[in-house]
Structures are given as structure tokens and as C-alpha cells.
Write a structure and sequence with these properties.
The chain is an alpha/beta fold. It has helices spanning 20-33, 52-63, 72-86, 97-105, 118-127, 151-160, 174-183, 213-217; strands spanning 7-10, 17-18, 92-93, 109-117, 136-140, 167-171, 186-190, 205-207. α1 packs across α3. The N and C termini lie close together (6 Å).
Length: 219
């Protein structure tokens, strides 16, 4: 790093948390309730990342169903209620994450920035015992546009009074890398998550284990 980093902004699903199993259970509960087919396990990676609404919409595309023939708001509510009650049943923290967060917390401000709803995010990180590591937790709300828009990252910059070059964004998808690039924030792509990179989202670094963030920060 050529410039001193003060804050690490970290995505949740696919970066800190392997949340796929609980998300899939919630999605399939919702689909079944509305007389739709199940989504198989191997598809979950292509559905995660844009929030509940986007996940349901992508599942309709996979099932080749007409979105407008269903009450999507009702489906979103069904999904969110089931997920809130079951969000920590099968999910797991990725290897080396807790150890790394504990080490990084000693030197950097740590933030979560996720398209998951705020109340769900707070509940999950509390239940997994990692809430104590974060200075700011930002989930989705009606006030800010979701990633890959830049609004959520800009909110963090304003809230913590930081310049873009003092931050590092860490995530597993275009949703994380694109807004970081637009704002001039350095970025790390984790290859073990759900997302895939495209030509318009080139990160500064790629890692296959969360703990390798330490190596980048000391290079």
C-alpha cells in the first residue's frame, strides 16, 4: 500500500459469511408457499448479492416464470420473515475470518457494507459473535441505493469523515468492486465467495483466504 489505510469496508455474504444455505432455504420456503418449484443448491451462487427482491427476481428468471403474475411484495415479506427466524441455522463464518478481524481491529476501523437488510445484518453478526469488531454496520434501507451504486460507500465516507484513499473495500462481487472503483477506493476481491468479476470491475487485489488481507496491508 502506497497510502495509509485507516478503514476497511467489508461485504457480508460471500465475504465474511457463507450464508447460501440459509438464503436458499428461505427462498425455497417462499417459492413453495407460492406454488413454485424449488431452486437447486448449485444455483445459489448466481442469486446472492442484490438483496431479497433481486434474489426472488433471479429465481423467477431461472424458473422461466413471469414475475408479473405474482405478488412480489408478498413474496419478499414471506422471504424476509422466514430468513429472520432462520438466518443462522446453516450459515457459517468463512475460515480465518474471526482471527483476522480480531487482528485488524487493533489498527483499523472496520465497517460492514452489505445489501442485506439492516436488521438482518445486525442480528446475524450478533449471533455469530463478530459485532464487537465493527465501528459501523451498514445494511440496506430505504434511504440509500444498493451497491453497485456508490451511495452506501459514500455514506460511510461521510459518517466516518474519511477520504476514499484512506479506505479499502473487500468483497466477492461486482457490487463491491464497481462502486469502489468509481470512488477511487482500493479494492480486494475474495475468490471463495459467490460473485464473479466482469470486465468493468477490476480489483486492485485478489485473495483466496480472508487472512491474506494482512499481507496486502503490510506490503
Amino acid at each position: 500500500m502506497n497510502k495509509p489505510i485507516k478503514c476497511l469496508i467489508i461485504d457480508l455474504d460471500g465475504t465474511i459469511l457463507n450464508s447460501g444455505p440459509d438464503l436458499l432455504d428461505s427462498l425455497n420456503f417462499t417459492l413453495k408457499r407460492h406454488n413454485l418449484d424449488f431452486i437447486p443448491d448449485n444455483v445459489i451462487g448466481s442469486l446472492v448479492g442484490g438483496g431479497a427482491k433481486a434474489m426472488i427476481e433471479k429465481s423467477f428468471n431461472y424458473l422461466k416464470k413471469n414475475l408479473y403474475e405474482y405478488d412480489i411484495e408478498l413474496m419478499i415479506n414471506d422471504f424476509l420473515k422466514f430468513y429472520y427466524d432462520n438466518c443462522s441455522n446453516k450459515s457459517t463464518i468463512y475460515p480465518t475470518v474471526k482471527t483476522t478481524l480480531k487482528i485488524l481491529k487493533q489498527k483499523f476501523k472496520l465497517c460492514i457494507c452489505t445489501n442485506k437488510r439492516q436488521n438482518l445484518t445486525e442480528k446475524i453478526i450478533y449471533e455469530f459473535g463478530i459485532d464487537k469488531y465493527f465501528d459501523l454496520v451498514l445494511g440496506s434501507s430505504n434511504n440509500l441505493k444498493l451497491k453497485p451504486d456508490t451511495e452506501m460507500l459514500n455514506h460511510i465516507l461521510r459518517k466516518l469523515i474519511l477520504d476514499p484513499n484512506e479506505c479499502l473495500m473487500i468483497g466477492d462481487s461486482n457490487n463491491d468492486i464497481i462502486p469502489a472503483n468509481k470512488l477511487g477506493i482500493k479494492s480486494i476481491f475474495v475468490t471463495y465467495g459467490y460473485g464473479r468479476l466482469t470486465a468493468d470491475s477490476i480489483p486492485d487485489y485478489e485473495i483466496d483466504k480472508f487472512i491474506k488481507i494482512k499481507e496486502i496491508l503490510t506490503s
